[in-house]
Amino acid sequence: MSVTSPSLRSTSTVANPEVVPDHVTRINEAKTPTGPGRPGASTAHITPSTAHLSTEDIERIGAELEAMRDEVMSSLGEADAQYIRRVIKTQRGLEIAGRIMLLGALFPPAFVLGTASLGVAKILENMEIGHNVLHGQWDWMRDPEIHSTTWEWDAVSTAEGWQHAHNYLHHTYTNVHGKDRDIGYNLLRIDPDQPWAPHYLFQFLSNAGLALIFEWGIAMFDLEIDEVQRGEKTWADKKPAIMGMLRKAGKQMLKDYVVFPALSGPSFVPAAVGGLVANLMRNVWGHAVIFCGHFPVEVETFDEERLENESQAEWYVRQMLGSANIEGSTLLHIMTGNLSHQIEHHLFPDMPSNHYARIAPQVRDLCRRYGLPYHSGPMWKQYGGVLWKIARLSFPGGHEAVEKRRRRGLPVIGEAVATLRRLRDGAAPAAA
């Protein structure tokens, strides 16, 4: 396969572009529009961070967020299409340059520059391109080569398996115990409500190991082998997915460790090592970005009863409480796939990522006006909090320590209460 062409799952044009594919996250479509305060509804949405909000307040939050989304989605056009095509062109240029330089990998400068260029290309492909294309963010372009039903990314996991585990399970049930398998990835105790077991004593090392093999960990995770362990599925049921992953992984390994290194002749070994290091770069970076988006100390998790009669607006609030942003430069945002705007991404997973920075100040101001936390900080702070939590939860307990730090992150809601009083009296909220 040429490195200048995307790996497509289908070479045909996209069938009926008006139909939304199953894997594209459609916000809470199965939920009925009932909520706390309405007949038969639960109050499971009430947490320390939302106790001051009424049902009407939450519905107003939902309406404001819907308006933000509508404004952006109605503005999409040629400038956006040029953006993603420019990113893809840059990524391919970096990959080609890296592969070419690794042909002379016996020469140390060529090895270092080639490996760095290839590593950055892999990060761009996975984060700003692959992740977001597979979310359907660019389906509106109706370009069969940049479409969620045809794109196959540069990772050992299959696009189809990832879309089910990530787009559907994770984005629908974000941070809900018993539903969102991303809480700890079946490997780590990342929340004090997870029962403690002796193997968690070593989870600081497990986390480091996971970072190094992150693409393989995700590929295995997407297979949902735990369904077999629980007796919900058989190995025969899982065989097609397992074989699909093995075929995809084989192609990836052949490309990175055999075909391209072989083209370098006497530089075969250092060229293969360069491919390995590039993959390690991508794995460690992707692991850090993902963990910073959902596992900082301040981020909340929820019981399954939270889903009962959860309205669209309550779904929005859960996404904001269960996500965290990374502050940094434009380059950092691009290299994270704009998952540095994890809050905005979880609110609007099918919105093109280049618009998250545009709406982030509006979402932050909405949280300020309604007294909701907006978890955001530099990468060192977010990942430092993640590592602290992993270390603390290696041992039994941890509820008090984690809850104390969570409450420390709650906003002072005096201003918000005044704003809500004006809203309830029929006045408009004060803008920032």
From TrEMBL:
Region forming the signal peptide: none
Basic and acidic residues: compositionally biased ranges: 20-29
Positions in coiled-coil regions: none
Ranges of biased composition (kind: Polar residues): 1-15, 44-53
One matching Pfam family: FA_desaturase
Domain Fatty acid desaturase: 110-376
UniProt name for this protein: Acyl-CoA desaturase
Species: Actinomycetospora endophytica
